[in-house]
Design brief:
By secondary structure, the chain is an alpha/beta fold. It folds into two domains: 28-426, Alkaline Phosphatase, subunit A (3-Layer(aba) Sandwich), CATH 3.40.720.10; 432-508, Arylsulfatase, C-terminal domain (2-Layer Sandwich). It has helices at 2-23, 57-65, 79-88, 112-117, 134-140, 228-242, 265-275, 293-317, 342-345, 364-367, 394-401, 415-418, 481-493; strands at residues 32-38, 67-73, 144-150, 169-173, 186-189, 192-195, 248-253, 324-330, 368-374, 383-385, 389-390, 429-433, 439-444, 447-451, 462-465.
């Protein structure tokens, strides 16, 4: 009996095991991808990039477990075009969105209160569905896709909303203007407008006329119940929790650390103790006042850092950490307004961060950004890459991670670099920006060519050797005419007239259709 009974038992168990294996959903075969995009975070605002005043232990740990890039570039020196370049793999000479276009022909788009009530006035110029995004590509590979954070590439009532551009799930700001408060009246969840428990306090609202600027209580109206970055974090963690049985792509476009300076006070007090008392920021350029602006800005960076830590812990808790590629970067360099005081933090070190050198400009401080990539068991811990790379490389990189073909792009996959393999390199990088008086820039080996004030008729190219002059102080164009000639040719070859008249540069030969 025993000799017969045991084989029967093992046979039954084997059958149950096979049945269970067939009925149970397969675990991820392809890796999850989380791309975290900070907003206006400078190259040197993380401890792993040399920051001395702001504490970022979780991002520093991420760098220690992965790879830190030292020559990575944003797609543009401001929000919307940089994000378009990131998502489409087309550099700014080919991208559809090349500037922040508020689409003023719709009406009074700059009236914040009106836009809160009327979605026809909300959002930016839309990106068409003829251009594939990373979301579209990964959806086609079986990924569940989500965008949490800030969009800026198509208003709520257009075809350019995230759900029509490759994202199964969206939660956050559709409109960049609405993101000028972190305690807004509403956010969007997919196609639904979600009202929050906040009063309407429009950007630029000043302190009450009789308020004491040295009294923290005078700033109470700028701190309300529903803090958008907290709500977004909740949705991001929920998305990770709910997608354990299939590969997912989470594009986490946080509004931090873009002004206005708003963050829970417990984070601020830590830096008040560290920095001491300071002069209040009374507000300008449409941003809120703040009692302790430097402490509060540092707190915003630390708040973002803590959220990255929570994401890593959630991945570990759900058993997804080792199968997830995490990339962290910023959409452009540090800003010059809103009380952020970038020079105080040396936010773009070793580059300059003052107005004219950081956000809005194609100098290194405006487009050189941090990038950290972490992938347990795949990327060598504590490694540093000096590969020259840019946002338009992200599309082909993530396509290769997902083991699918990338749409045509201007990018080069840097997956080999992440895995310690032989890497194809760019011959050059190109930018153009039809704002701040018109600009073009080229990175060509150690050379950097910049053309500024194009709308003022200037077509001269400044030339800098970044190996010898990283802060771009010594124009050596006269001594290197052959290099200037090559860069000028790149500027001609890589520019294609934009579809939107507002992005066209007539000095480069573009013809505007609107009269």
């Amino acid at each position: 009996m025993q000799k017969i009974f045991l084989p029967i038992i093992w046979s039954a168990l084997l059958g149950l095991t096979m049945l269970s294996a067939c009925s149970k959903p397969e675990k991820n075969k392809k890796p999850n991808i989380i791309y975290i995009l900070a907003d206006d975070l400078g190259y040197a605002e993380l401890g792993s990039y040399g920051q001395q005043l702001i504490e970022t232990p979780h991002l520093d740990a991420l760098a220690a477990r992965g790879m830190r890039f030292t020559q990575h570039y944003a797609g543009a020196p401001v929000c919307a075009p940089s994000r378009c370049v990131l998502l489409t793999g087309q550099h700014a000479g080919h991208a559809y969105i090349r500037g922040n276009d508020e689409w003023a022909s719709r009406g009074d788009v700059w009236d914040f209160a009106k836009a809160v009530e009327d979605p026809n006035l909300e959002g930016q110029w839309p990106m068409p569905d003829s251009i594939p995004t990373i979301g579209n590509v990964l959806q086609g590979a079986g990924y569940k896709t989500a965008l949490v954070g800030k969009w800026g590439l198509g208003g709520p009532l257009t075809d350019g909303i995230p759900n029509n551009r490759g994202f199964d799930f969206f939660y956050g700001y559709n409109c960049q203007r609405q993101a000028h408060t972190l305690t807004p009246r509403h956010l969007w969840k997919n196609r639904e407008k979600v009202w929050l428990e906040n009063d309407l306090v429009a950007p630029g609202t000043k302190l009450d006329s009789l308020a004491d600027p040295n009294d923290l209580a005078s700033y109470a109206k700028y701190f309300q119940k529903d803090y958008a970055p907290k709500l977004m974090q909740d949705e991001a963690l929920k998305f990770i929790e709910e997608n354990q049985e299939q590969p997912f792509f989470l594009y986490y476009a946080t509004p931090l650390t873009h002004a206005p300076i708003q963050v829970p006070q417990e984070y601020v007090f830590k830096y008040v103790e560290k920095f001491g008392d300071e002069k209040p920021y009374i507000g300008d350029r449409g941003y809120f006042p703040n009692r302790y602006p430097k402490a509060a800005y540092a707190a915003m960076v630390s708040y973002l850092d803590s959220q990255v830590g929570e994401i890593v812990e959630k991945l570990k808790e759900t058993g997804q950490y080792e199968n997830t590629l995490i990339i962290f970067s910023s959409d452009n360099g540090p800003t010059y307004n809103g009380g952020t005081f970038s020079p105080y933090f040396d936010s773009a070190k070793p580059f300059k961060s003052e107005y004219g050198w950081g956000k809005g400009f194609t100098h290194e401080g405006g487009i050189r950004v941090p990038m950290i990539a972490s992938w347990e068991g795949k990327i060598k811990p504590g490694s540093t890459s000096h590969l020259i790379s840019a946002f338009w490389d992200v599309m082909p990189t993530l396509a290769e991670v997902a083991e699918i073909e990338s749409p045509d792009s201007d990018g080069v996959s840097f997956l080999p670099e992440l895995l310690g393999k032989e890497q194809t390199k760019h011959e050059f990088l190109y930018w153009e920006f039809p704002s701040y008086h018109g600009q073009q820039a080229v990175r060509y080996g150690s050379w950097k060519g910049i053309r500024k004030n194009i709308f003022k008729g200037n077509m001269e190219i400044e030339l800098y050797n970044l190996d010898l002059d990283p802060v771009e102080q010594n124009d050596v164009a006269d001594q290197n005419p052959d290099v200037v000639k090559e860069i000028a040719k790149i500027m001609v070859d890589e520019h294609r007239p934009a579809v939107n008249d507002r992005f066209r540069i007539t000095q480069l030969g573009d013809v505007k259709t609107a009269q």
